[in-house]
Amino acid sequence: MKKTLLGIALCTGMAGVAYADPVPYIGAQVGYSFTDLPDADITTAAGQSYGFNKKDDDGFVGEINGGVLFPITDYFLLGPEIGIGMFGYSPKYSLNALGINASVKYENDYYIPLVARAQFPINDDFYLFAKAGVAYVNGETKENIQGKSFKQNQDAWKFTGSLGAGFNLTEQFSLEATYTYIDGDTSGKDIGNDFDDGDLVLQTNNIFVGVNYKF
Prior knowledge:
Blueprint: H1 2-18, E1 23-34, E2 41-43, E3 49-51, E4 53-55, E5 58-73, E6 76-87, E7 92-97, E8 100-121, E9 126-145, E10 148-168, E11 173-182, H2 188-195, E12 204-214
Antiparallel strand pairs: 1-5, 1-12, 2-3, 4-7, 5-6, 6-8, 7-8, 8-9, 9-10, 10-11, 11-12
Protein name: Outer membrane protein beta-barrel domain-containing protein
Signal peptide: 1-20
Keywords: Signal
């Protein structure tokens, strides 16, 4: 009899885990984004070096996303997530020396992250989460050299990863803070090589606060 009751209890527990309802959700977040533009300069035949001015390498970023979390255990949920984000700034190089008036502007317009999200409940109120996957980043470069303008579309698939924490405000709404890294070009050599290939995107670091809604 004891063995029978124990078997029923184990089967019931296993069924509870296996058939736990998935948790669909949507979210919106806003924050601050920055990129580390490499130094760039030009050197004359006489050995004089003139550095390019750098500006507008940080600013607004926003993202909306949605996904489904599947309870693996009481303390671990896992599922896919997709989103779309927009950058609100355009890093720029400029030079006005040696009779040269030139500028190059990089516009990372939007990105689409495709990631796996792992979530770890700490208690009824707090949870931690991590994301990893790829992001499609689309943008444009604009050159102005001696009054002549050129532009080229730029796009590439890059690694992206996130770490964050959340607080459950209600059963449906939660508040989240997230750090998101999107890989990209960070060196002058990479930027020079990728510029003409049409796959130049800048590495970005993004800090968000946002709200999630669970269905």
